[in-house]
Design brief:
The structure is a single chain. This protein has one helix and 25 strands. By secondary structure, the protein is mostly beta strands. The strands form four sheets. Strands 1, 2, 14, 15, 16, 17, 18, 19, 20, 21, 22 and 23 form a twelve-stranded antiparallel sheet that branches. A seven-stranded antiparallel sheet has the order 3-4-5-12-7-10-13, with no helix packed on it. A four-stranded antiparallel sheet has the order 6-11-8-9, with no helix packed on it. The longest helix is centred in the C-terminal third of the chain and has 12 residues. The chain is globular, with a radius of gyration of 18 Å.
Length: 289
């Protein structure tokens, strides 16, 4: 499917096709960033992983200037980081890691787990007010759920339909896992936000446009509701348009090339900036260019 920017940006969806790539040997659909759409609010990276039977094992690697948000539909992943955190995540639970000035982590399939992996890895760009701050990690075993006749929404970040997530957000955001059932669903939206919908399983119609796995439907600010129809599992993302122009390179979210070069040099030299991760997996060096 080709990307389609429909006539009236304020009332129509812009459909963006994923790029197929690989992370740690696992196939993923990279839905964001795109050349024509770098961010949705502060959401700056969306990888739809699986479903796959391949084990997810990504050795210690660094981040700056972002939050990682990990959400599984199937599977189990063990998070380890340089703060000393060691936390398994399972479907229905949320891991959120804040990089700030610098953190390192690994993502591993526990030796006891046998089965498929299916989920999404999301990054959120931190604003100037927090991106130079300290790292942090939080795990949420329970999240608020909105139940309606045609959908169930689990609120990962921010607020939807009166339900607010306890997860950290440094800018106004929303992220929600939607289980759509047959029938017309109308979701309330914040008109100050831009939004996007990605389908995990099945197919949905977003304002009348068919959206399947591998396509992101972008919706410009100015809407107070979203009409969905279909039997599908989907992700709703949104936020106030992010004013800063971010520079994303490898695992870093920065503003200038100098910041990226300094982070790469610090990681490859073993600087204390990122700390050490107690993982049996090999440390991943930063590329040279």
């Amino acid at each position: 499917m080709r990307s389609a920017d429909l006539a009236d940006e304020s009332t129509s969806a812009e459909l963006l096709e994923a790029r197929i790539t690989e992370v740690g040997g696992v196939p993923v659909r990279r839905l964001l960033p795109k050349r024509t759409r770098r961010t949705v609010g502060a959401w700056c990276f969306v990888d739809h992983l699986g479903p796959t039977d391949v084990a997810l094992d990504i050795g210690p690697h660094p981040h700056i200037g972002l939050h990682t948000v990990t959400w599984l539909l199937d599977g189990e992943v063990l998070h380890r980081d340089s703060l000393g955190s060691e936390q398994a995540i399972r479907p229905g639970q949320l891991n959120l890691m804040t990089a700030g000035h610098g953190i390192a982590h690994s993502e591993e399939t526990p030796a006891s787990y046998r089965g498929a992996h299916h989920g999404v890895q999301l990054w959120v760009a931190q604003p100037e007010s927090t991106r130079h701050g300290g790292p942090a990690f939080e795990h949420h075993a329970e999240l608020p759920v909105v139940e309606q006749p045609t959908f169930t929404a689990t609120v990962l970040v921010g607020e939807l339909a009166g339900a607010r997530s306890p997860a950290r957000s440094d800018t106004p955001l929303v992220g929600a896992d939607l289980r759509l059932r047959a029938g017309r669903t109308v979701l309330p939206l914040d008109p100050a936000f831009e939004h996007a919908v990605a389908v995990f399983d099945g197919a949905a119609r977003v304002d009348g446009h068919a959206v399947e796995a591998g396509t992101l439907a972008y919706l410009a600010p100015g809407r107070d509701e979203l009409v969905l129809d279909g039997d599908a599992r989907a992700l709703l993302l949104g936020g106030e348009p992010f004013d800063d122009t971010v520079l994303m390179w490898w695992n870093f979210v920065a503003r200038t090339r100098g910041e990226v070069d300094a982070a790469r040099a610090d990681w490859n030299s073993g600087s204390d900036r990122f700390g050490a991760v107690a993982s049996p997996l090999d440390r991943i060096p930063a590329p040279q260019s």
